[in-house]
Amino acid sequence: MDEQINESLDILIKNEALIGHKLRSMLESFKEEKKIVGYSFGKLCYLHYEAFTDCLNEDIYKVAAAIELLILSFDIIDDLQDKDSDYTWSETPELSLNVALAMLVMASKTIHETSFKHKNTAIQILEDYALRSINGQQLDLLNICRDEESYLQMIDQKSGSLTAMGCLIGEVLAKGEISPEVEEYGKYIGIIQQIKNDIQSLKTWGPKNDLLNKRYSLPIIYLLSQKNDVSKSVINYYNNDIVAFLDNNATENELTNGGAIRYAITIKNVYKLKALNILENVAINELGKNYLNKLMK
Q: Known InterPro entries for this protein (predicted)?
């Protein structure tokens, strides 16, 4: 499936007549970097389409590729905002921003050019859920979600909207309507993925560590709520206290052994259980269910 989505991406980029050589070349190179991690959002779309249709339309690979273009554009913009220098697109941010904008337009344009009866509804879903994700990204950048409820609402928008979008576009192209159950577990998958990323961020004390960057995530929110010496030093560090001393070893130990990581894992597992309970009552085939289970591990 990854190979077929990748092939569709290659064709889309090659055949887009309205972009020049330099833009196309950057698009191709950025896509190659994306290829390494796979096309999970496009696969969500394909698997939900396959689960609910009686007759497979090969244009579904174009739609899956379109979704991956949108996701890649969001990844690029996110990395540019975070000043993440691990990717090629961070080397020329001004030019890369144009590539991201081109991808956004191409995503909608590609779906519009398919033969699906319900393609306009699919485009509407793409636009609505993309805007919800952008709103969540704005809240994340503002760094204002500092309690469990507001943080979970933020990642519901930022990450949950995109996984739900992939599921719902596949469903609507197959049967012309969407179901609240698919939307709900689709969002939960995104929330689970984001919590896993939050936990991973704290395992390395480097430039991407959320705590060192004074960002908020579930483990950090838990740590800051504790009344001990480590939490007090972290609070002082977050409040820009110039004499604050942050003991990395003590802080890492508190995160790992003081309950913060376990708390985040527990919240993740609550969402996994919710998703699995819903999934039991949805008529999706075993292939689809197995893939969804893999994403929630």
A: ComQ, Isoprenoid_synthase_dom_sf, Polyprenyl_synt
